[in-house]
């Protein structure tokens, strides 16, 4: 028991430190590549903070722990929108870029709908997993192309230099920036693994089912990199990274994590996830749009609405785990 608690504490420390390192590296790469920080948040940062989900889902699929493999992704997406964006907005209102409403949110919503539709037969097979990966490659390529074509350099200069010029003085260099991103990802993965292992040990001691563990403890644990990264980015005034990190992570979770996992080992989807949790994922994804569009910012009050939705979802899962349902 003490070892499990220790793993949780060590995991939290590694996650916070890794998030800070990753954000610094991502800002450096955004400056060097003359890409907007939003694109960096949707690609490098989102992929990096999604690595814990990939490690957990692949390991779970190979171990025939389907509740963990799929529940981890669905639960993480719900946690990302409700808990992480909600907490970040309550700490500091988040500005929203127009592209987040016009392009990135629709892609996230479409990915969520595709997952629900493809999983309705109770599985995600290799062909469907390959389709997810192709869709991700097309989306990422389009984002880079659109930024280049639309003059992402000027937007990037404003985003990087406007709030904290000290961060790019002296100008960043490629290898150190890549090293920071790589080191940050490694710290995030190690932290998430430590935290999930400790937290799962504690949860199983309470007799909680595998699917519920995947939707709660594991989902929250593997999403802590997103929480730490978005909080650090928001604190540094980089709302574009804070918000697009969450949207990008949700896209990566479905298209990359589930896509890669299904290609490696076809996934059986538990009935309760199809009938209950996928609908929650779609619901909170839909709820996010009007909150983003209202004043092109997520206010503290709107952040509280998201956190309330998270608490309601947790209460429902608690009833499913310990109640009669």
User: Beta-strand level of the residues, as a percent range?
Assistant: under 5%
How far do the termini sit from each other? 29 Å
Count every helix, treating DSSP H or I runs of 4 or more residues as helices: 12
Regions with pLDDT < 50 over 5+ consecutive residues? Answer: 152-168
Count of distinct strands: 4
Bin the helical content: over 70%
Rg, alpha carbons? 19 Å
Q: What value does the average pLDDT take?
A: 81
Side-by-side strand order of the widest sheet: 1-4
Structural category is mainly alpha
State the major sheet.
Answer: 2 strands, antiparallel
Form type = globular
Order of helices and strands: HHHHEHEHHHHHEHEH
Characterization of the model:
- The chain is built from twelve helices and four strands; from the N terminus they run H-H-H-H-E-H-E-H-H-H-H-H-E-H-E-H.
- It has 325 residues and is mostly helical.
- Helix 1 (2-33) crosses helix 9 (210-235), helix 4 runs parallel beside helix 9 (210-235) and helix 5 packs parallel to helix 10.
- The two termini are 29 Å apart.
What is the structure about, briefly put?
The chain has 325 residues and is mainly α.
Topology record:
Layout: H1 2-33, H2 37-49, H3 51-62, H4 66-91, E1 94-95, H5 98-119, E2 123-124, H6 126-149, H7 152-161, H8 174-204, H9 210-235, H10 239-264, E3 267-268, H11 271-293, E4 297-298, H12 300-322
Antiparallel strand pairs: 1-4, 2-3
Helix pairs in contact: 1-2, 1-7, 1-8, 1-9, 2-8, 2-10, 3-4, 3-8, 3-9, 3-10, 4-9, 4-10, 4-11, 4-12, 5-10, 5-11, 6-10, 8-9, 9-10, 11-12
């Amino acid at each position: 028991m003490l070892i499990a608690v220790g793993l949780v504490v060590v995991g939290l420390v590694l996650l916070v430190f890794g998030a800070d390192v990753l954000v610094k590296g991502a800002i450096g790469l955004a400056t060097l590549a003359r890409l907007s920080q939003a694109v960096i948040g949707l690609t490098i940062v989102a992929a990096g903070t999604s690595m814990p989900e990939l490690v957990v889902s692949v390991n779970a699929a190979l171990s025939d722990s389907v509740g963990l493999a799929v529940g981890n992704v669905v639960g993480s997406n719900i946690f990302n929108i409700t808990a992480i964006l909600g907490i970040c907005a309550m700490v500091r209102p988040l500005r929203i870029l127009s592209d987040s409403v016009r392009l990135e949110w629709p892609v996230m919503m479409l990915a969520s709908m595709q997952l629900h539709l493809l999983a309705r037969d109770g599985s995600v097979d290799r062909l469907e997993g390959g389709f997810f990966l192709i869709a991700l490659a097309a989306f990422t390529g389009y984002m880079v192309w659109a930024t280049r074509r639309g003059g992402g350099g000027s937007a990037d200069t404003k985003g990087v230099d406007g709030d904290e010029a000290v961060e790019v003085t002296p100008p960043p260099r490629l290898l150190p920036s890549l090293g920071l991103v790589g080191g940050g990802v490694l710290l995030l993965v190690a932290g998430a693994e430590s935290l999930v292992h400790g937290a799962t040990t504690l949860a199983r001691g309470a007799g909680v089912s595998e699917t519920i563990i995947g939707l709660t403890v594991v989902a929250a644990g593997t999403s802590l990199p997103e929480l730490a990264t978005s909080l650090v980015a928001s604190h540094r005034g980089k709302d574009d990274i804070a918000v697009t990190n969450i949207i990008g992570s949700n896209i990566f979770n479905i298209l990359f994590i589930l896509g890669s996992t299904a290609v490696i080992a076809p996934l059986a989807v538990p009935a309760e996830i199809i009938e209950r949790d996928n609908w929650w994922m779609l619901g909170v994804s839909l709820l996010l749009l009007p909150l983003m569009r209202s004043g092109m910012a997520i206010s503290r009050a709107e952040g509280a609405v998201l956190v309330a939705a998270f608490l309601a979802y947790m209460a429902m899962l608690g009833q499913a785990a310990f109640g009669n349902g």
